[in-house]
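User: Modeling request: complex.
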Amino acid sequence: MVAGVLLALSTVRDRKKTRAALIISGKVTLQVLPVLFFIFVLMGTIEAFVSKDTIAHLLGTGSGVPGILLAETVGSVALIEPAAVFPFSGYLRTSGASYGAIFGFVLAAILIGIATLPLEIKLFGPRFTLFRNVFTFILILLLALLVGVIL
Amino acid sequence: MKSLLKTAAIYIALGGAIWGLIALVSPARGEIVSHAVGDTFKQTIEIIVAVFIFIGLLQVWVPPKTIAKFLGKESGWKGLILASTVPIGIGGSLFTILPLVQTLLEKGARIAVAGAFITAWAGKLPLLPLEIHFLGWKFALVRLGLLIPSAIIIGLSLEKVMERRGKP
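Assistant: Request completed. Predicted assembly structure:
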């Protein structure tokens, strides 16, 4: 709804720009939708083979620091589109994962990337890359503990 | 464009293969996968389409390059605070954001600004509808609220560590 209104507004203001925007939207769709499909299949696969109890045990409220560390590690290693992070997290949530662990997973998935390390080292040098990723990992852990208390 | 299609095909093929394999080995479990895929799709397709349109409009009306140029000019606390908040509105993945931040540094921005920029970009405002749908507005609010001070902390500590280099 809101997107439709914005789109109409944009068309009135500038047709060319709106067309460019729609082309970008199309490209993003092409880029993200297949990944989402893959993630949805993965979610279904986990649901079919791993019981909710196991997920709740590994990432639930009682899992504490090890649970957050596990979530963060999975997030860092996983090669996922940011847009796919939230559907997967929602699935983890309904399976009994704690908000703290989900917070760790979401931010690690977006901010820490094994896949982007080579690019980051090339652009910023090894020292910047090392400290940025380490600082981020530690800070996420601390904040995730805080989130566990708040939510 | 070609590589885009290629990657898309790979993901669809991979997902389809896993799905097919499971259905073949255990039809009951294949059914669970089908339900998960179908239900999630039905639940989210509307939000996803809206988010995609939003991302396109944002890219055109507020190009990331303009934001970077604007941030590169500011220094001191003002620059740091802007770098910890403005990037929240930018989309993209690390693959697109890292080169952007590097041009920021080349234009003379502080390391703290670069570090804060990358961290704040994880705010992912364009994906907010998805986040609220799946995790609730409380989680989204807390996450955003914690991210802004985090960006400043990461930026400043990175700058400290980087400046120590070269000194005895």
